[in-house]
Amino acid sequence: MPRIKVKRTSTVTDMTAMCDVAALLLTFFILTATARQPEPLAVSTPSSTYEFKVPAENNATLTIGQGKVFFEVAGQKVRARTLELIGQQYKINFTPEEIKKFSVVSTFGVPVSSLKSFLAMSGADRMKPGVQTGIPTDSTDNQLNSWVLQARTATAEVNQQPMRVSIKGDSKEEYPVVKKIVDVLQKQKVNKFLLVTNAEARKK
Amino acid sequence: MAELNTGGKKATPRVDMTPMVDLMFLLVTFFILTTSISTPQAMDIVKPDKDENNKDNRLELKASKTMTILLGKNDKVAWYMGEAGATAPTYESLSQVEKSIIENRRKADASGVKGEFVVLVKPTSGSNFKNFVDIMDELEILKVKVRQIDDDNILDSEKESMRSQGIL
């Protein structure tokens, strides 16, 4: 009887193709993704079936959670101009270095009076609990109003575009807190808002 | 002169790519985890203008085609058709209100009164942000075109009836 010849193939596979795929994926991710900004105030947004993207430019985001409100305006140039205008309004002189630092700060929540010391901190120190107490919204010292107003002015100056206001609220946040913030905006005749939500599949 | 031994068997210039692939996937994983790819979704909301001097702000509503939804505590809502106090409010949970909206719209459209079916949303102090987003989302899904948000004019009678049901 003839013996069946088993063909022995080498167990070493050529990894070059796989390496190519991995490199391609890596390139894709690096190019499409934007780095996630550290958030000083973590909120879990409610979900909705709306399919409207939050604009990346000409937009200010108010983060509401734990009864506090944090502010962010998109665009480094706009941020720099906003700080200049805030400085003029509150008679605080910000050095060019501080303005530069501020232009890369995304979401923040400190009163204007402690903004200088806040900017002097390192990135890690800013994220420590208790450092950022939220932007004052009392009727006597309504700094949120000033921030939104100056951000709108700055956006109009830098981009020649109207600024949109997005509200990123925590699911559990009580409605009166949200209403208080919305009322501040409505005083400025901002009646259109974007509520930031998570995407949710439409049930059918 | 010394010569390099180039003759004989040529070694194939093969490199083991496995560690490189490992490294690549490690980097891919790292980038997936540290970046946010999609921009968040947003809901478009328009609130009524508060300027009292603007005469155009007054919107006339047909009582028989207006449904008022009050948002209360514990994901509960109270709704009624027409004017406050004319009909007793119905209390139910937020997830059930979808059916009521459909039912009310069907009745309103069948009544033959001119005008659009309007839903008035009144979030009270007992409700949270999620309730508000949920109801606006529900109206969007049901394609209720005319919807108004009113958080300033919550009537005392409405508050009273909600308190009696323990949802304010």
TrEMBL record, chain A:
Keywords: Cell membrane, Membrane, Protein transport, Transmembrane, Transmembrane helix, Transport. One of its GO terms (biological process) is protein transport. It is a single-pass membrane protein; Single-pass type II membrane protein. Pfam families: ExbD (PF02472). InterPro entries: ExbD. This is Outer membrane transport energization protein ExbD. GO terms for cellular component: plasma membrane. Belongs to the ExbD/TolR family. It is found in: Cell membrane. GO terms for molecular function: transmembrane transporter activity. Its main location: membrane.
